[in-house]
Amino acid sequence: MAEKKKAGAFDIRVVIASLIGLYGVILTVLGIVEKQAEIDKAAGININLWGGIAMLVFAGLFVLWARLRPIVVPVEE
Q1: Using an 8 Å Cβ cutoff, are 23 and 53 in contact?
Q2: What's the distance, CA 68 to chain centroid?
Q3: What is the pTM of this model?
């Protein structure tokens, strides 16, 4: 019987989580340093901050999903 190995960093979910997490960090930082005039343009909602936090949560869920249910591939001999 062939051995099995986890896909690890090559799992597409980890790549997607990394990209969305990076964008989430950028938006969160932009939301923190946003001027009040820009927030007022969006009806008083700091959309960069909330969007960045949502992206970070989404990326965290993707990483959690990849860790709890890893893709297992057979090892060729």
Answers
A1: no
A2: 16
A3: 0.81
pLDDT tens figures, 56-68? 999 999 999 988 9
- The token duo for 65 is 């999903």
Secondary structure class of 19 (helix, strand, coil): helix
Question: How big, in percent rounded to 5, are the helix, strand and coil portions of the chain?
Answer: 70, 10, 25
Do residues 11 and 73 lie in contact, with contact meaning Cβ atoms separated by under 8 Å? no
Q: Which two tokens stand for residue 48?
A: 């960069």
Residue 13, Cβ neighbours under 10 Å: how many? 19
Residues in the chain: 77
Say what percent of the chain tops pLDDT 90.
61
